[in-house]
Structure to design on (514 residues):
């Protein structure tokens, strides 16, 4: 039986490998990003020649100049792809990691902006990921902008969101608007529309998000699990059980 | 430079100090923070470099903190920081939001002794509107290129937990060079270590590359497992079960008081 998380991992892997997107030779993964990290391992162990820099490794951390090196690398243009999420995400791909209500989050407080305000503009491709797909998360307009999805003319930026993956569907982003790319099993175009607070484009017939292949599942449950266990023990237990990889 | 006792190290932090602290798994000074709680420090202005975790939440919960500048607050795999959230909601904590590279850059400006440094990105973020100390200017070397300027930031005190220190006050942090930036930028740096290093860390080419010179270090105290419940490099792993227990207990005032009594107030280190 395929776990929902495994389908999300495979969906992100497919976006990483999208031949229409600029090449991903060096991918960085930030804090609390189990599913994006698993997708990166899946494409790498599946044969893609890619360098992975995982920010939160306690041992064998890829940065020898401290955590600021991630941002220096991004500023230099040496990171091709990064992942971001948000407590709120709106139809212009603006991300809110601050909170709701008055600044700095007098309603619900989110963790804070991390490096999003910088990475979203300096990295050519960002894949947005947020498992909860509801009107409280996907809003017409975010209460506060941690990181802007679209910039004013003249602002230097290398790229923006490539896509948004949620627990219900995959949206593509063309630099201005989201477009429904596929719905996960159990969802329809209408059910996604009902749970989405922002407006977006959609084809006449919604495609279904493909399942991971048997080869992908074997990689996920073996070598990918093994590489995730130290950093994401609770996630690995939930998705792949107590068995050691 | 002589080693001092942990309590004496904590006594060197004045009430109201601007105190820079690295987060979980970045050599966070957890034993030192517990000593600060026992010392009863008040009114700290914490700086998370560049984010904050267990140590920050503990100090806030114990009533030691007046304000916090950070890029995020997050503990363990769940990410919950209950005392931070409670203090923010109650209005007892003033929070100044930043973004990770901005904090690094402000410290790097202080490290270089220049008044400000530019940073790419960030434009379009509401962070800027809430940071009157940050300015967007035109790049003086090109036209039509707005760019963010950040002021130098020199913390009064920095504290972190390193692997070892020698008698000259040189401390070994391995590849975590952001600790060097914090020490260079701060006016005073207090360090706890797992153990004493016999001889000089600077005599060994391999150790020297991961060493911060004692010129930046005011005092060192021994605190074995001093990063716990965070992990420390290749020395020991994070104690995820304890962080989960902390996050659970810290959800309520009585639970947090219970935590303090069990792990902080009555403990000797």
């Amino acid at each position: 039986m395929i776990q929902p998380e495994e389908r999300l991992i495979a969906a992100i892997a497919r976006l990483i490998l999208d031949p229409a997107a600029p090449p991903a030779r060096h991918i960085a993964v930030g804090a609390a990003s189990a599913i994006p990290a698993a997708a990166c391992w899946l494409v790498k162990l599946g044969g893609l020649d890619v360098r992975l820099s995982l920010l939160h490794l306690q041992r064998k951390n890829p940065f020898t100049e401290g955590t600021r090196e991630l941002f220096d690398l991004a500023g230099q243009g040496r990171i091709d792809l990064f992942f971001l999420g948000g407590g709120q995400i709106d139809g212009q791909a603006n991300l809110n990691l601050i909170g709701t209500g008055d600044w700095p989050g007098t309603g619900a407080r989110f963790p804070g902006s991390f490096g999003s305000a910088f990475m979203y503009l300096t990295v050519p491709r960002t894949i947005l990921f947020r498992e909860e797909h509801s009107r409280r998360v996907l809003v017409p307009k975010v209460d506060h902008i941690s990181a802007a999805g679209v910039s004013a003319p003249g602002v230097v930026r290398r790229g923006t969101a490539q896509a948004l993956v949620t627990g219900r569907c995959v949206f593509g982003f063309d630099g201005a608007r989201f477009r429904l790319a596929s719905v996960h099993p159990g969802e329809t175009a209408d059910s996604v529309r009902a749970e989405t607070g922002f407006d977006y484009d959609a084809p006449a017939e919604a495609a279904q998000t493909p399942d991971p292949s048997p080869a992908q599942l074997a990689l996920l449950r073996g070598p990918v699990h093994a590489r995730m266990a130290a950093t994401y023990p609770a996630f690995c237990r939930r998705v792949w059980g107590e068995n050691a990889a | 430079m002589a080693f001092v006792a942990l309590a004496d190290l904590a006594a060197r932090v004045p009430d109201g100090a601007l105190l820079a602290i690295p987060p979980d798994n970045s050599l966070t000074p957890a034993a030192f923070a517990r000593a600060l709680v026992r010392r009863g420090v008040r009114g700290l202005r914490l700086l998370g470099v560049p984010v904050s975790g267990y140590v920050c939440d503990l100090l806030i919960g114990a009533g030691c903190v007046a304000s916090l500048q950070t890029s995020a607050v997050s503990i363990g795999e769940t990410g919950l920081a209950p005392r931070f959230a409670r203090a923010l909601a109650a209005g007892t904590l003033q929070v100044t939001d930043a973004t990770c590279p901005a904090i690094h850059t402000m410290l790097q400006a202080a490290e270089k002794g220049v008044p400000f440094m530019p940073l790419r990105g960030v434009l379009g973020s509401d962070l800027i509107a809430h940071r009157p100390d940050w300015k967007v200017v035109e790049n003086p070397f090109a036209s039509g290129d707005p760019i963010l300027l950040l002021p130098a930031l020199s913390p009064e005190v920095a504290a972190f937990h390193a692997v070892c220190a020698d008698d000259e006050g040189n401390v070994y942090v391995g590849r975590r060079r952001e600790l060097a930036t914090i020490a260079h930028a701060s006016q005073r740096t207090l360090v706890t270590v797992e153990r004493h290093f016999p001889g000089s860390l600077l005599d060994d080419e391999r150790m020297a590359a991961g060493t911060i010179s004692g010129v930046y270090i005011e005092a060192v105290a021994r605190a074995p497992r001093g990063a716990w419940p965070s992990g420390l490099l290749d020395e020991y792993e994070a104690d995820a079960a304890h962080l989960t227990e902390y996050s659970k207990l810290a959800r309520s005032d009585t639970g947090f008081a219970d935590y303090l009594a069990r792990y902080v107030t009555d403990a000797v280190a």
Remarks:
- The radius of gyration of chain A is 17 Å.
- Chain A has a mean pLDDT of 94.
- The CA atoms of residues 58 and 231 of chain A lie 8 Å apart.
- The longest helix of chain A spans residues 214-228.
